[in-house]
Amino acid sequence: MVPVRSSPILIPGLKTALTNIAPAPRLVVDLDIIRTNYRHLQALTPGAETAAVVKANAYGLGAEQVVPALADAGCRQFFVAHTSEGLEARQALGDRPGEVFVFNGFWPAETDTLHTAGLIPVINDLGQLQQLREHAPDLPCAIHFDTGMNRLGLDERETQRVLDEGLLDRLQVRQIMSHLACADEADHALNRQQLERFKAISGALPDIPASFANSAGVLLGPDYQFDVTRPGLALYAGAPAPGTGFDVCVRIEAPVLQVRMLQPGDSVGYGATWTADRPIRTATIAAGYADGILRACGEGGIARLNGQLVPILGRVSMDLISVDLSDFQGEVHPGDYVHVLGADLDALSEHAGTISYELLVRLGLRFNRVYKG
Ligand SMILES: *Cc1c(COP(=O)(O)O)cnc(C)c1O
Description:
Elements: E1 26-30, H1 31-44, E2 49-50, E3 52-53, H2 55-59, H3 63-72, E4 77-80, H4 83-93, E5 99-102, H5 111-117, E6 119-123, H6 126-135, E7 141-144, H7 156-164, E8 173-177, H8 189-204, E9 210-211, H9 215-218, E10 228-229, H10 233-237, E11 250-262, E12 267-268, E13 274-275, E14 280-285, E15 302-305, E16 308-313, E17 321-324, E18 337-341, H11 345-351, H12 356-361, E19 368-372
Bound molecules: pyridoxal-5'-phosphate.
Pyridoxal-5'-phosphate (PLP) binds next to helix 9 and helix 10.
C-alpha cells in the first residue's frame, strides 16, 4: 500500500508520537463522489454490470480506501494490472464479496498465490492459455482477445484456434474481454471495427460474460456495453466527454507559506522564467513536482483560492509553486489553502501536455491524505 503520511511520526526514544501540525499539503479524496460516479455509470448501462478498474493504487487515489467504497456502492468486480495490486485489492475488500481480475496475464509461478488470494488472471496469449491448461485448469480465468489495439490479448490467428479447437471447454472462464484503442474519439473507424470483431467472438462464446467498454467506451452507446463494463477514469475524475454528469473526486490543498509584493523587473523561481511588468502580489505555496504538480503544469497552469483563479507563475519547484494574486479579490494569509486539480483537472492536464490519468497516478506520497465520506 502507498504509505499514508497522516499517521503520527514516532522517533525512537521519545515517549509520545509527534504530529505534524504546521500547515502541510493534503490530498482530499471524496469517496462519496466515487460512489455517486459508480451509480451514475450503473444507471447509464442498465443491461450491464459495472466493474471498477482500480489499477495503479486506484489511479493514485488509494486502493485501500477506494476499493471498499466501490464495494459499498455495489461493485462486485475489480480489475488491476499487477498481481501485487490484486493482493492489495483483496486485502482492501476484506470480507466483502468481489472478484479481482489481473490484466497482466497468467504466470505459472504465481498459481498458488492466485488460488489462495482468489485472484483471476486475464490470459493474454495462446502460450499462457496452454500453461493454464497444463498447470492450473481449475483456476478461474478470463481471456483477453485483441481486436485491434495490438497491446495485450490473443491475436486473430490464436483466437481462431481457440474457437475451432474448443480450447476453453474445460476451463473456468469467468469472462472474455477486449479493449478499445480509440474510445475517446467517438468517430474513429477503429471503434466499429473492434466492435464487429468482438461481437463475432462473443457470439461464438455465448455462455461467457463479455466485457468491452472502458469509461469512454460506455459513452459510445449500448452496442458497446455487453455484459460487463470496465470503467476507471469516470469513477474518479469525470468523463472523457464534457457534460456527462461525472465529478472529480480529488483535489490537492496546499498552504500559502508567504505572500510577496513584486516590482516590475522582479522574476519568480528557478531560471527566472517569469518577470513582473507591473507591481503584483504573489503567494508561495507548499506543493511542487514532488507532490505531482508536474513541471509542465508551470507558467500558465491554474490553481484556485476561495474559488478564484490564481495562475501559476514561472517554474514548478520540487516543493513550491508561486501563484499570481493580481486578480484575486480579498485577503490572503500564510496558512490559507490553495486548491490544485479538482474541477481544473482537465484544463491543467491539457496545459501540461498530458491527460488527467497521468496527473492522477503521479500524485505524490508525502501528502496528508484525507478521505471524505
Ligand atoms: C485501464 C483500463 C481500463 C479502464 O480505462 P478507463 O479509460 O480509465 O475507463 C479498462 N480496461 C483495460 C484493459 C484497461 O487497461
